[in-house]
Amino acid sequence: MTDQAIINGLYRLLLFVAMALLGTLFMNNLVLYKQKLRDRISLMLLFGVVMCSFELLWTFCDGYFPQLKALSYIGAGGYLVAFLAFAITLNRYILNRFDRLPKSRLLTVLFYLVPFGINLLLCATTPWTHWVVSVDDAGVLHEEILFDALCTPLMILYLLAALISAVVYAVKNRRTDPTAMRIAYSMIVFGIMAPAVYVLEILLLGIDSNYLALSLAVSVAMVYLTTNVSTHTLLETRAKVEATESELRVATEIQASMLPSIFPAFPNRPEFDIYASMDPAKEVGGDFYDFFMIDEDHLALVIADVSGKGIPASLFMMSSKILINDQALMGGTPAEILARVNKQVSAGNDANMFVTVWLGILEISTGRLTTASAGHEYPIININGEYTLLKDKHGPAIGAMPVAKYKNTEIMLKKGDSIFVYTDGVAEATDANNELFGTDRTVAALNALPEGVSQKEVLAGVRTAVDAFVKEAPQFDDLTMLGLKYNGSENTAGTEDKHEGA
Residues 315-338: pLDDT tens digits? Predict the structure, then answer.
């Protein structure tokens, strides 16, 4: 094998590597970054792949298959047209980033479409005119006068115009636009690296290589697309992700600040022990809990689950929490409070969201707990040392219909009795086999706890049981729990167990 054959083979190898690299970047742009095919970055990558494919075609035919002159012409002409399309798209992408695109439609046509059309016509007619390239009887392709005088300079003009625009922008705006400045600097780095790669190719292939005149185009495409386009896409994606993460952090902090403190919640009220927890499935969730004193003798307990997840559910959660709190402080039974809240929520519920709510009001002096449920999970009560499911009376979820009625349920708690309420994230926690944790396992987990544990330990025990059940399966729903233990008061001595509906 001659030295020239080795050089030509090495050049074809470089072309294949460039094509594979550009193809990988193209698919990465579509699949990973969800860019559309018509986006300029995707088009540049696509034109780069086509450009390398056509050049591989004519370099493969050159000298090896002299009888396939038509393929040599198609390969050379297709290469020139694809590279011009690449250069134009790259030029428009960069100029658009720095707001340098021609404003006039006529200027756009003159600057892009006319040269592209002329180049396309010249390439299409060159098998007969031989103005751009020609193929001799030995199958070797030769560059003609219009190749060096028109086609290559035109392509380099588009590339240099974009590069110069980046340099000018970097000089004029070096202190005002940090994000765009990073892009501008990467353009400048690209402008330095492309000639460096070209020199490297000269060293590898030799100054007399048949294809050296065209190798600069591949150098420019490969270096730009690997160092610049990917950098642009990553910068834009990272900026969007960082902005979203920042917003979610703020939303998480706001949501957490709206939940009542539990360390401890009421240090001067020994009549009861209360604890609550919320673990959102996403950064922000739709579940919430609340507890607050209505007056010196009445404690309100709330746990709720908003339909949906994420930011919309979080916003709906916060507004619902405020409404429930305000209406409870205005007085009334839990059923009356829920009815008023439902009316308010339904009046402005354009998003058609809803929230299930369990609301209880404990009369501390007597142990009477009056509750009402708007479609929420059944509470679990501990009477005489055993947890059981209490199937209280349900009404529709808040926001599900404009007018709704709710019914009260009364529970007489004596010293040592407790109640555990939760959202469906507990009962519907799912393992890898899509089996639900369920209310039976929840009750069993509560009854497995030792006597005399605090409400914090009660919630921790349930969470441990849920985690042991689901193992490595992901958490699909918010998991919120609230536990209250009634320690009694002087007025509740000797009170008998009593459960009745009103």
Answer: 788 888 899 999 999 999 999 999
